[in-house]
Structures are given as structure tokens and as C-alpha cells.
């Protein structure tokens, strides 16, 4: 049974291939079109996952989309009706788009499959938006039974759900509906802090430790958080029946002025607003989790939806929440819903079994997401032919131990390196296959990579990738974190004493706070990725080589892309990004491209 799951038309379009219940491949459309958050029908991603699965478009038995377009349309119409005549202009602009795009998704999908060679495409099936999230959270998880929590901006009507997964069944027990949305609240703060909605939310999370929750009283005038984590939003005040809530001048007094202009310097207002909203999200998520635990009695929790990418809230939930363990879908946003839609159809509509015995959650690799390795890969032979065709000189180091020792030495000498190895990751995190890596002990590399290499804001923290064998010696972490989806503190004995704390947040970021200052945020925290030999052998060998040479089992790991660009997919993408970023070396499978080759093509 070959099932294609797709998500599209809002943001982060993706395709996923499930064969007899096994997730074979998944990829986001943006990686192929090179358009960040591409929401178009995932034609290229579909072609990729079919190629990885070794099947043609004619071999598909079912195609499942991640939400129900008619229900989305009904919600948009109801929202505009709520505003009355004032909504007429917006209604006129939106309806043609919705009718041509969302309501025609079945026809568009059929045409896509015919273009890819199908002669008789299967009829399109539909899952619900949050059911797709819940399925993506539970079915790939290592748990036979678990509570499920999904939280995002909005689906058809639901904005959050609590459910229970048991073997092959997922049941949604409760939901919260528009306009009461934790995700939209965070997006509102994102816009007010001067970042782009549906793209800059993670920047707010990184900005929050610089501020204090001084806007708590003002926020309480707009949002009430219930004891079960539900929220009640003054929808009229925040303008969610409008198209552009950030244009509401009524919020200026509450938020200390209008939204920050994109290129304007950040002020104390922005730092404090980010902290206030981050605190509110953490409070709501903790209360939702308590409610889910009471309702289900489950020992484990699975999470998905865009808010599940808030790794600060995830870390706090793991430390303070009622569950023994937590598994977060690494592609928690709409891209991951392509996976959820396909798995939902296999289990619920086809009656496919899910045999997943009780396991020790300390054992990594028992989930279906394969540590994100679900996209295309390129063999050493393909890389060799490509290098020759492009005229790019490179050193061939086929022995993995020798190659990792050489790269580790370059890193220890201060090189910033593009690392391209194995299958491309699915989801927003680079996990050691499409990564930029550097020595975390450097006091200058954090600013250098932010400003020169990535071309992004200087306050942004970087994640440490650490050998699992040494994780508890370097971080207050007691559960594997292979997907870089939880924040914890750097171990106390690894912290440095700060003699003088600058008052300016942008100066605070430059103060070394631990033995790995490039990966330690201003509050002593880190978004940790644990690396395991069983599931990520080459990256584990590189970290081991670096540890052997430096006594440090940690590397700085950030996604291989420039600001505003998707993570690289192909060797062409990698070379272009390496040259644009001014990287010192580029490692493409068995080949090491030296500095001079990167500079020659700049």
C-alpha cells in the first residue's frame, strides 16, 4: 500500500511517502524551488520522495492532503462575516484565491501526478488539519500509548487539541477554536517585535532571555489563560477578524508603541514584549499538558503543531510537567502534516497495524523519523562527477576516520565548515547532514557566523551538537534530544563566572558564559542536539574525532543556509551557499573542497 501525503497552500508545503505503514521519504518543496516557506503544490518534493521510494506516480494507491479545504473556506467566510461590511474589500481579495487554490486542490493534485507520469491518479483523500498534526506526533513516536498535544496558529477551526494515541488509533478528545489561538498570539508578538509572521517566531524565542515580563498586565487585558491551558482572546481588540492585526493602533498603548520597523534597532520594549509572550506560552503549554495528563492518564506525551517547535517551552515541560517522557515531531509545523496525513490514512482508513512494543525511551532510533534523514542523498560517485563537471578542485578522503580526523583538526584551528553528508533532513533543523559547523569554544565565532556567514541578527544563539555519551557532563539533560527540540541549562561546572554584566543586551551576547561560549545563550541555556552512534554514525565519528583532539565533545551546529534561504539540498546549493557565506571549507561526502576553491568562485 503506497500512500502519498501532501501539505500545501498555507506555508511549508511538503510531500511524504508511506509504504505499508513505513515512512520511506519526506521532503519540503522549498528545498527544491529555493523559495523559503514555499506553499505551492509540492510537485518537486513529490518527485523526490517517489524517486527515493523507487516507485512511479502510477504506483500510488492513495493521495491524502493534510486538511479539509471546504472547512477552511467556511471559517474564512465566517470570520469576514463577523466584521460585516468592513470586510468586503478583504473578502473580495481572498475569495478568488481560495476558490482557485484551496477548493481546486484535488484537480491540481491530479494534474501534478499526471505531469509526473500517472495515467490514472487515485482520488484525493482528506484528513483534518489537527488530526494530521496528531497523527504526525503519535504514529512515528516510540510509544505504544501516549497523550497527544497539538498547538498551532489555526487549522480549519481548531487551534489546539488534546488527544490519545493507542497503537493504531488516534482520538482527539478536546479542542480549542479560533479566534482563541496561542499560536496566533505568538505571531502577533512576532510582528510587533519587527519580524515576519510565520517565519520569525523562533527569533522571539531567542530574544526573550534578554528581557523581563514587564507587559504581563497589558497582555492580561487581551488574553486570559485558563487552568486547563485554554486561552480566551479579545479577538476584536487584536483584530483577528481583520487581515492585518499589526496595523491596529489600539494596541500601540498596550505594547508601548507600533510594531518595530524591520530595519530599526531593537529596544527594551522589544526584549520585554518577547519575554512576556514567551512566558505566557510556557504557562499555557504547561497547563495544557497537565490537562492532557489528567484526561488520558498516559505516561508519555507526543507533540506537534508550530508551537511544538518552541524548544524553550518543551524543555520546561520536560523538567516540570507530569509526563515521564516527551516526543516532539521534528517537522512539527505544516510540513510534518504530510507525514501525518499519510500515516492517518494507513492506520485509520486502511486498518494498517502498528506494532510498536514498549521500549526504553533512552534508546534512540526507535521512532520512524530516522533522525530526520528522509530526503535525497548523493553518492560519492555522483559528487565526484559533479566536482569534475564544475571544475571544482577537492581532496578525496574516502576513509571516514581519516576524513573526520582531518576535518576535526580544521575545526580546532578555527575553520567554519559546510558539512554535506547522507540524506537531507526533513524539518527546520539541520542535524548533521546539511550543517554549518564550528568550534564552540571560540569567543568570536558566534558573532562571526551570525553576521558574516549567516547574515542574520547578532543576538541569535547557536545549538551545540554533543556526543550522547558526554551529554550529562555538559548539560542538565537526562533524556536524548536528537532533534534539537528542547532547551536546557549548561552544566554548572561548565559555566564561567561573569564579573561584569553589561546593561545593553547586544553587549551581553558577547560575554563568555561557559566553556562553549559560542553555544551558550545569555541565560546559560542551550538548545541541545544529542548525537548517537547508532543513528548518526558519521557525524558521531566527527564529534568523537574533535573530542579526541580537544577534549571537547561538542560542536556548534547550525543549518547550512544564508538568512532568507532554505537549507541546501544539492551539491550545487551547497557550493553556492558556501561561497556566499565565505566558509573556509566545504565537505561533500568523501570530498573536502578547500578555501581557495570557494574564494575563486565568489
Write up what this structure looks like.
With 602 residues, the protein is of the alpha/beta class. It has two domains: 260 residues, ATPase, nucleotide binding domain (Nucleotidyltransferase, domain 5); 221 residues, Carbamoyltransferase, C-terminal domain (DHBP synthase). 36% of the residues lie in helices and 17% in strands. It has 21 helices and 22 strands. The strands form five sheets. An eight-stranded mixed β-sheet has the order 13-22-21-14-15-20-16-19, sandwiched between helices. The N and C termini lie far apart (48 Å). About 1% of the residues have low confidence.
Please tag this protein with its features:
globular, 17% strand, 602 residues, eight-stranded mixed β-sheet, Nucleotidyltransferase, domain 5, DHBP synthase, 21 helices, alpha/beta
CATH superfamily annotation of the largest domain: ATPase, nucleotide binding domain
What's the number of domains?
2
User: In total, how many beta strands?
Assistant: 22
Shape estimate: globular
Number of helices: 21
Under the CATH scheme, the architecture of the largest domain is 2-Layer Sandwich
The class by helix and strand makeup works out as: alpha/beta
Q: What's the helical proportion of residues?
A: 25-40%
Poorly predicted segments? 357-363
| Strand order within the widest beta sheet | 13-22-21-14-15-20-16-19
Mean pLDDT: 92
The CATH class of the largest domain? Alpha Beta
The rounded distance between the terminal residues' Cα atoms is 48 Å
Main beta sheet: strand number and arrangement? 8 strands, mixed
In the CATH hierarchy, the third-tier topology of the largest domain is known as Nucleotidyltransferase, domain 5
Q: Supply Rg.
A: 23 Å
Task: Kindly estimate the percentage of residues that lie in beta strands according to DSSP.
Answer: 15-25%
Amino acid at each position: 500500500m503506497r500512500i502519498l501525503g501532501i501539505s500545501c497552500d498555507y506555508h511549508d508545503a511538503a510531500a511524504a511517502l508511506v509504504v505499508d505503514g513505513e515512512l520511506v521519504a519526506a521532503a519540503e518543496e522549498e528545498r527544491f524551488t529555493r523559495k523559503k516557506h514555499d506553499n505551492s503544490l509540492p510537485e518537486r518534493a513529490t518527485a523526490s520522495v517517489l524517486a527515493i521510494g523507487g516507485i512511479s506516480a502510477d504506483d500510488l494507491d492513495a493521495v491524502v492532503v493534510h486538511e479539509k479545504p471546504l472547512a477552511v473556506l467556511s471559517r474564512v467566510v465566517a470570520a469576514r462575516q463577523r466584521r460585516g461590511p468592513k470586510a468586503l474589500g478583504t473578502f473580495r481579495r481572498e475569495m478568488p484565491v481560495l476558490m482557485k487554490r484551496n477548493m481546486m486542490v484535488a484537480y491540481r493534485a491530479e494534474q501534478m501526478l499526471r505531469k509526473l507520469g500517472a495515467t490514472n491518479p487515485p482520488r484525493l483523500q482528506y484528513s483534518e488539519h489537527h488530526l494530521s498534526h496528531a497523527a504526525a506526533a503519535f504514529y512515528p513516536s516510540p510509544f505504544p500509548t501516549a497523550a497527544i498535544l497539538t498547538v498551532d496558529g489555526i487549522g480549519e477551526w481548531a487551534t489546539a487539541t488534546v488527544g490519545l494515541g493507542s497503537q493504531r488509533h488516534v482520538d482527539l478528545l478536546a479542542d480549542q477554536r479560533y479566534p482563541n489561538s496561542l499560536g496566533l498570539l505568538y505571531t502577533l508578538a512576532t510582528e510587533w517585535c519587527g519580524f515576519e509572521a510565520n517565519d520569525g517566531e523562533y527569533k522571539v524565542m531567542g530574544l526573550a532571555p534578554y528581557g523581563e515580563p514587564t507587559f504581563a498586565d497589558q497582555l492580561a487585558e487581551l488574553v486570559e489563560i485558563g487552568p486547563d491551558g485554554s486561552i480566551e482572546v479579545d479577538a476584536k481588540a487584536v483584530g483577528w477578524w481583520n487581515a492585518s492585526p499589526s496595523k491596529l493602533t489600539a494596541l500601540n498603548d498596550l505594547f508601548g508603541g507600533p510594531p518595530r520597523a524591520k530595519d530599526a534597532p531593537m529596544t527594551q520594549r522589544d526584549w520585554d514584549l518577547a519575554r512576556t509572550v514567551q512566558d505566557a506560552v510556557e504557562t499555557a503549554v504547561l497547563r495544557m499538558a497537565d490537562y492532557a495528563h489528567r484526561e488520558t492518564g498516559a505516561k508519555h506525551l507526543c507533540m506537534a503543531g508550530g508551537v511544538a517547535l518552541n524548544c524553550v517551552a518543551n524543555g520546561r515541560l520536560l523538567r516540570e510537567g507530569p509526563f515521564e517522557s516527551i516526543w516532539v515531531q521534528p517537522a512539527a509545523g505544516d510540513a510534518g502534516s504530510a507525514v501525518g496525513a499519510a500515516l492517518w490514512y494507513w492506520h485509520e482508513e486502511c486498518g494498517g497495524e502498528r506494532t510498536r512494543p514498549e521500549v526504553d525511551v533512552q534508546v534512540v532510533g526507535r521512532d520512524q523519523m530516522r533522525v530526520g534523514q528522509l530526503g535525497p542523498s548523493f553518492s560519492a560517485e555522483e559528487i565526484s562527477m559533479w566536482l569534475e563537471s564544475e571544475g571544482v578542485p577537492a581532496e578525496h578522503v574516502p576513509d571516514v576516520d581519516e576524513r573526520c580526523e582531518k576535518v576535526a583538526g580544521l575545526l580546532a584551528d578555527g575553520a567554519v565548515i559546510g558539512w554535506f553528508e547522507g540524506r537531507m533532513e526533513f524539518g527546520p533543523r539541520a542535524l548533521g547532514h546539511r550543517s554549518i559547523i564550528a568550534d564552540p569554544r571560540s569567543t568570536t565565532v558566534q558573532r562571526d557566523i551570525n553576521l558574516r556567514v549567516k547574515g542574520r541578527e547578532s543576538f541569535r544563539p547557536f545549538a551545540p551538537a554533543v556526543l550522547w555519551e558526554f551529554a550529562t557532563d555538559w548539560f542538565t539533560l537526562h533524556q536524548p534530544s536528537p532533534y534539537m527540540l528542547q532547551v536546557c541549562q549548561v552544566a554548572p561546572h561548565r559555566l564561567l563566572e561573569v564579573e561584569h554584566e553589561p546593561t545593553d543586551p547586544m553587549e551581553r551576547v558577547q560575554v563568555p558564559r561557559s566553556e562553549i561560549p559560542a553555544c551558550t545563550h545569555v541565560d546559560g541555556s542551550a538548545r541541545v542536539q544529542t548525537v548517537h552512534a547508532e543513528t548518526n554514525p558519521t557525524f558521531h565519528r566527527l564529534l568523537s574525532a574533535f573530542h579526541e583532539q580537544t577534549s571537547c565533545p561538542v560542536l556548534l551546529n547550525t543549518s547550512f543556509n544564508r538568512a532568507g534561504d532554505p537549507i541546501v539540498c544539492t551539491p550545487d546549493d551547497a557550493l553556492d551557499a558556501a561561497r556566499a557565506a565565505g566558509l573556509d571549507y566545504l565537505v561533500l561526502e568523501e570530498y573536502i573542497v578547500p578555501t581557495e576553491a570557494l574564494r575563486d568562485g565568489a
